[in-house]
Amino acid sequence: ALLTVEHVKNDVEILVEEGKETILRVAEHVSFTDVNSIARYLARVAGSAGLYGSNLLEHTEVDHWLEFSATKLSTASQFLSAVQELNHCLSLRTYLVGNSLSLADLCVWAVLKDNNIWQEQLQQNKAPVHAKRWYGFLEVQRAFQSVGAKWTSGTPKVKMATEKKADVGKFVELPGAEMGKVIVRFPPEASGYLHIGHAKAALLNQHYQVNFKGKLIMRFDDTNPEKEKEDFEKVILEDVAMLHIKPDQFTYTSDHFETIMKYAEKLIQEGKAYVDDTPAEQMKAEREQRVESKHRNNCVNKNLQMWEEMKKGTEYGQTCCLRAKIDMSSNNGCMRDPTLYRCKNQPHPRTGSTYKVYPTYDFACPIVDSIEGVTHALRTTEYHDRDEQFYWIIEALGIRKPYIWEYSRLNLNNTVLSKRKLTWFVNEGLVDGWDDPRFPTVRGVLRRGMTVEGLKQFIAAQVGIFFFSDSLNLTW
Ligand code: ATP
Ligand code: MG
Fold first, then answer.
1. How far is CA 395 from CA 174, 355, 403, in A?
2. What's the whole-model pTM score?
3. DSSP 301
């Protein structure tokens, strides 16, 4: 009742007094004692406040929720299933009825606020997500806060994520960055739509592009012909444009296949790489046990012979891979002779069947970063173990060394940020498509009603925090 008063007090003259009962006195012999009746009366009198919805259908929906709050939601034995029902109805909504606050929100919220089970669920982080989001969203609004402050029922105060102070735009400066000389790159693999984790990567790169008046390269990482799908390239370019990101240059890792191959051969010639036909399972076991391959000390000629087999894609060649000769006893698993090239017989969307061998991402990335002039290679922290390998490749080839600058991966609870998993939902027909509003894809988020500006601010806020801490978990 107090919440309703708070929302109609500009339209209706009303005097509130503290007492033992909840009564609304309308005239000398007319008073209401039922909370919902009080709320209904006030909402009808203060029609311009819009608390009763804006059409007949919405009036009826509001009535439904009022009844729901007074019956199911107020009955202990039905409470949990009522909350589930509420959660379901809120899954794609901000308010219970229509697009604005109504009595439905006020009455359902108030019953929850007074319910101990709900408060416990909130505290233990067990409350259903949509209901929790909606509850927290209302809780921080001024009217709810001011009623809450006067409220004396003593329900425990629950800390909501929304109470956190916004921490926007605290980007960390780039070490060794010179105005006008910074070159960064965003290298997606064209195997799905961009999600908001990718948006973080792309926006972060753009930030440095803009602030250092530098250059942003948009590079399709197409080292793996199996995964690459041309349709997705178009989609990704559109997604990038939607985020108002303007790359200065567009490239493909495959533009450099010839150079990468020359470098691989240089490593073979110099005894820094060897061809190995050890079966995958055994190679994995040998890596774990730090055992050297029987081919590790083959002579250069033997390696070149086996490499030819690989390049031709012969049956034997297909059982081989090219490995860097680094250190099988290293504590860093990435240094135990990683794979540089593997044989694949599938045609590549851009180079067709010119090649039967393709570089791994780990081998291609440092070379392409170096030749494209990238000064700062932004990578997520889970690549950290591979930095040593990245620098080994650069040094072994004697090429220019980019600076690796780490940032943390965006992780969200209650959703998945992985193209592989999102693809599964799409293929199973469980969603509308890649732009389903429940999806954390750039398009899904925008379709759900988020603005590009809002998304940017969200990412900026994460970056400020994320540079310093890895463990912040956000909820979708
Ligand atoms: P996914 O598992 O979704 O396929 P990915 O890393 O394999 O992710 P890529 O297309 O290779 O996808 O990623 C392009 C860029 O986006 C890379 O630089 C990658 O590190 C970055 N990126 C991907 N996911 C995230 C995330 N959740 N947070 C921050 N950056 C991310
Ligand atoms: Mg990847």
1. 23, 26, 13
2. 0.66
3. H
Q: Is the CB of 409 under 6 A from ligand 1?
A: yes
> pLDDT tens digit string along 234-257?
999 999 999 999 999 999 999 999
Say how far apart CA 151 and CA 82 lie, in whole Å.
Answer: 25
| Helix 103-113 vs helix 35-45: crossing angle, to nearest 10 | 150
Give the pLDDT band (50/70/90) at residue 165.
very low
Q: Which residues sit opposite 185 in a β-bridge?
A: 217
Nearest alpha carbon, ligand 1 atom 16 = 198
pLDDT at residue 398 tops 50:
yes
Decide if 189 is catalytic.
Answer: yes
For a ligand 1 pocket test, name from 184, 198, 473 the mutation site with the most ligand atoms within 8 angstroms of its C-beta: 198
| Eight-class DSSP state of 195 | B
428-465 pLDDT tens trace: 999 999 999 999 999 999 999 999 888 888 887 776 54
Tokens representing residue 222 in the block: 């197409």
Name the 3-class secondary structure at 409.
coil
Our answer on whether the CB atom of 380 is closer than 6 Å to any ligand 1 atom is yes
Could you confirm whether 401 is annotated as catalytic?
Answer: no
Q: Is the CB of 418 under 6 A from ligand 1?
A: yes
Q: Which residues surround ligand 2, an ion (CB under 5 A)?
A: 189
| pLDDT over threshold 80, residue 159 | no
pLDDT digits (tens, 9 = 90+) for 120-149: 999 999 999 999 999 999 998 888 888 877
Residue identified by tokens 């792309």 is: 202
Residues 6+ apart with CB under 8 A from 136: 160, 161, 162
**Cα 198 to averaged position of ligand 1 atoms, centre (Å):** 5
**Pairwise CA distance, residues 239 & 241, whole Å:** 5
- 181 has catalytic annotation: no
* Ligand 1 atom closest to the CA of 419, numbered from 1: 3
pLDDT for 1-15, tens place per residue? 999 999 998 888 888
Could you tell me which residues come within 8 angstroms of residue 28 by beta carbon, excluding any fewer than 6 positions away? none
